[in-house]
Amino acid sequence: xxxxxxxxxxRKWQERWAATRAFEVTEDPSKPKYYCLEMFAYxxxxxxxxxxxxxxxxxxxxRTKRMRGYNVLHPFGWDAFGLPAENAAIxxxxxxxxxxxxxIAHMKGQLQRLGISYAWDRELxxxxxxxxxxxxxxxxxxxxxxxxxxxxxxxxWCPQDKTVLANEQVVDGGCWRCGTAxxxxxxxxxxxxxxxxxxxxLGATVQLKQWPEKVLTMQQNWIGRSEGARVTFPMEDGSANxxxxxxxxxxxxxxxxxxLGPEHPLVSRLAExxxxxxxxxxQVQTFRTQxxxxxVSGEIEKQGFDTGFHAINPFTKQxxxxxxxxxxxxxxxxxxVMAVPAHDGRDFEFARKFNLPVKIVIVPEDGRxxxxxxxxxxxxxxYGRTIDSGEFSNLPSEEAQRRMxxxxxxxxxxxxxxxxxxxxWGISRQRYWGTxxxxxxxxxxxxxxxxxxxxxxxxxKVAEFTGRGDSPLAQVPEFVNVKCPKCGGPARRETDTMDxxxxxxxxxxxxxxPRNDQQPFDPKKVSYWLPVDFYSGGIEHAILHLIYxxxxxxxxxxxxxxxxxEPFTQLLTQGMVLKDGAVMSKSRGNVVDPDTMLGKFGxxxxxxxxxxxAPPENQVEWTDTGLRGIASFLAxxxxxxxxxxxxxxxxPESRIPNPSELTPAERGIRRKTHDTIRRVTVxxxxxxxxxxxVSAMMELVNDLYAFGEPEGARPQSVAVxxxxxxxLVRMLSPFAPHMCEELWETLGHRDGLTKARWPEFDAAVAxxxxxxxxxxxxGKVRSRLTVPAEASEKELExxxxxxxxxxxxxxxxxxxxxxxxxxxxxxxxx
Length: 830
Known about the structure:
Layout: H1 6-20, E1 33-38, H2 49-67, E2 71-73, E3 77-78, H3 83-92, H4 96-113, E4 124-125, H5 129-144, E5 148-158, E6 163-165, E7 170-171, E8 174-175, E9 183-192, H6 198-203, H7 213-223, E10 225-234, E11 241-246, E12 257-260, H8 265-272, H9 277-288, H10 292-297, E13 304-312, E14 319-325, E15 336-339, H11 345-354, E16 362-363, E17 385-386, H12 397-411, E18 414-420, E19 425-426, E20 428-429, E21 439-442, E22 446-449, H13 477-480, E23 481-483, E24 490-493, E25 497-498, H14 501-504, H15 507-510, H16 523-529, E26 532-537, H17 544-558, E27 568-573, E28 577-579, E29 582-583, H18 594-601, H19 603-612, E30 620-621, H20 624-650, H21 664-685, H22 690-707, H23 715-732, H24 737-746, H25 763-766, E31 770-777, E32 780-788, H26 793-802, H27 804-810, E33 817-821, E34 825-829
Parallel strand pairs: 1-2, 1-26, 3-4, 12-14, 26-27, 28-30, 31-34
Antiparallel strand pairs: 5-6, 5-9, 7-8, 9-19, 10-11, 10-18, 12-15, 13-14, 16-17, 20-25, 21-22, 21-24, 23-24, 28-29, 31-32, 33-34
Helix pairs in contact: 1-24, 3-4, 8-9, 18-19, 19-20, 20-22, 20-23, 21-22, 21-23, 22-23, 23-24
């Protein structure tokens, strides 16, 4: 008997796949295509098993589809730009490019050691000038079409280091490095006009039939189309106006205060008017740096403070206090809310916490009296009839809305409008490690794009990263100072770089044609490969990355480069891997290094374990015990095949006999084999329930062991076991490819599993000859009948009534009703 040595098999087959370029593909119109893609990785240094779960899910899908006859594109690359590498450079002095390239090399080795079937010839990194050249090219095309524009916007500013800070670099309102209180400043920033596609992005979500409902709901809420009214609340001192958007203008007479988001542009002006502007700004900054997702969802503890200023309710003409609240986002809607605590749940919670007035202006249509505002337990949010609303009193809510909107428009204090939560995408970053924005500023010609033939604008080599002063690019005179492409006069480059989400918003197109130096991609190649058929990644990308990618797809469509609007046909969001009840992270010290597990158990055991332990979309609790159990199962499969191979070789021409030639046990193995093929195929291709696919194969292995030993087996037994084993090895190969390749070779196949065909099931063989049917008496199961699979309803009824266990529960009782669900259940009511 040969010994199962997984680490040796890992090396052997990974070397062979690389040598034969087994997973490289080109367009082939004669075959159906399948584009399988996992969200590419940020090269942080070391992947842990929480990261690699997603890659293994994709690999199971890719390997299965290859065997099913598809031309499979399964590429990988690196989301290589970003703030972490630059922060590391500030701390350690290691240039971002040096650390990023080293991290890529290490993580690539980890993925190769896992046996992921990537087409490495298409590998790309977004920090390659050959890639980000096309970010710049697309930026210019968008600028030409009015989709890229510049305006003033607020940023975090450290007055000590004199530098812009990302939100992640603001800790408790202070600079992450020096602790100085962070200020808010307005700078000229570049934006993408994603709102031009808001209606289409929202409406098309209903067409994404193979996306998780949770993701679609998150996108719909983020885009947030609302019909309502925009109303102006002037400041009491006349110094400014505050525009609010409301879907319930019928409640405006109950608006007793105004809430501003901490990002609202008026906030900085209010701060300057206070007695202690620094304290005011610190409190604002604390709100700004709280978890954005929690602020959006309203799950955050509601906090706020009174600015000391007032606005005028334009309908009541009464002053109302202006507060700043953490659950209002300055870049959502108008960034300001008219608070109606009697009729809005969040406003009510806030008012009760801070003892603000509650005024009821809507009562039920059925004539029930209004509750006491001082004791009401919650807001009444339903439509009804207006009260205490001046000339608009005693109107149904819908009628009051129509009249109030008309009144506001007539008086110039508001109008009916449609609003989106979605805001234009600010892409400017005052950072080094990103794509330079390809624009030039000339005193004579204004803003001038860099000519296409001068792209890419490459990052200059910066020798030192201090984290202080202007943008790092602004400190490189030879980069900044250029000639204007139009007039030839002195000019300066834009020194901001692009948000790294730009890099990830179209990389899936570049994979179709990654070495093209004439255009982002050949439209013909993209037409063959795109849309992506199967896309997987974390649900944390449900909003930004996936919405931005859908936006870019439409931009490319409108440039005439693609013929679709949706880039991803099917989306799977995999669950997190937990250790000791928490998500794996270096900071928690609960990371499991896949290299350690590979050294102990081999790649196949790790791959199979993370697929078996839970459905792909569910969270996984990591245990070493579970991994050891899977390693034992693989060794069991190895022994099974190994012990039967001599018998297979002694009967090389064995055929599957006619059913009449088989014993019941042999027919049982054939039925189990074909039923397993059916279950595994459906579980992988249709349901993506990879854990139950593994369970089905485990059941088949158990049945094969129970069937008996090969010694003395008759030829018919050898034939049915050979059929089962060959099917098992192929079905298991997407999960455990190294061992299965070796077993496939041992079974006498010269071509590897990358060229093998997926087993086909025979429905007639898979059909059970006998089934077990439960029998209920008054709703309780009293017996189970083993009956022919084709037994009729009449036969099932007769067998149930004649069953001794059932008869014992019928003694002295009258059967009033018999319900038979053929093949599933007999129910007796007595």
